[in-house]
Amino acid sequence: MVLPTSPPASLSVSQILTEFGIAANTQKRLSNDLFPLVGGTAGATCSLAASFSGKSAAPARLYVTVTDGPSSIAASSTDGITWTERAMPVSAAWESVAVNTTTGVYVATTESSAIAASSTNGITWTQRSLPASVPFYAVTCNPTTGVFVAVGSGSSIAASSTNGITWTQRTLPSSENWFAVTVNTATGVFVTVSFTSAAASSTDGITWTARTLPSSQYWRGVAVNPNTGIFAAVAQGGTVAASSTNGITWTARTLPSSETWFAVVCNPTTGVFAAIALASTAAASSTDGITWTARTLPASKNWYGLTVNPTTGVFVAVAQGSSIAASSTDGITWTQRALPVSANWRGVAATAS
What we know:
Elements: H1 13-19, E1 29-36, E2 45-51, E3 63-68, E4 71-77, E5 84-92, E6 94-99, E7 106-110, E8 115-119, E9 126-129, E10 136-142, E11 147-161, E12 168-183, E13 190-194, E14 198-202, E15 209-212, E16 218-225, E17 230-244, E18 251-266, E19 273-278, E20 280-286, E21 293-308, E22 315-320, E23 322-328, E24 335-350
Antiparallel strand pairs: 1-2, 3-4, 3-24, 4-5, 6-7, 7-8, 8-9, 10-11, 11-12, 12-13, 13-14, 14-15, 16-17, 17-18, 18-19, 19-20, 20-21, 21-22, 22-23, 23-24
């Protein structure tokens, strides 16, 4: 694209699109394309980051992790490698964080009260309220519908929100220590697991149906591959895992070593599941959620939180009681990273773009 030495006062969107060879009524994102500043000095540049034909710009690729304590500390990273300290709106036992990967809205919940927080960028946070004073250990989001779901421990209480700001109390099938929740973004099916053999599923995050895991364990983590529909769950204190093709019927599986398995996630692009263990260097990966292979984390720490960026495929794990994190491009080989301060790092989430 060539402009005269003295640019015109303005260019219409259609003129800009024409200059870039984009036909009218087509959809194409121009990200980081450089073009002369209209009305500015010839040769000056700026970045155009937008989507035309009614599409909005995608959220930045941002990892966010929160801390227990109570604490008002959080951290964010654009790559899962270099982290910057952030501030939560109030000091609390921040336990879990989730993100709507379509809008980039984050939600964090606590283990000790009805406090929640939301953020449009993972950096600046606003305090919110959950409808009941129970520990909300886990939160997730279906980016297709925008519905967030948080599950309460030691109760039959859950909560849902269409925006991460206003929440409505929901009812789980039984009073349990609900500890983990996930959602199949392809079907919209939510699944939560507990510290017994109890599980539950929901097609909308509002109405829940009781399900049964293959044995009574401290089920700590659950994840799903949206391409195959396979859910995988891990339990602490043994080699016990489970898989399900629909979130309803579960089959017992075996992890590669007896550990306090604490979290599991799945890269939706490659289908690789990764799991981490507390107080260990033990990790595991699986290409199908059924058969698991032993992997090794870079330090023996209380690995607590785990996420994966669905665009870049980079896994990130965080450890409580330390300033240590780890990242992996494949869920197999892990590299130690540094968080801004030593804290009880807990939940971690990542946006797509």
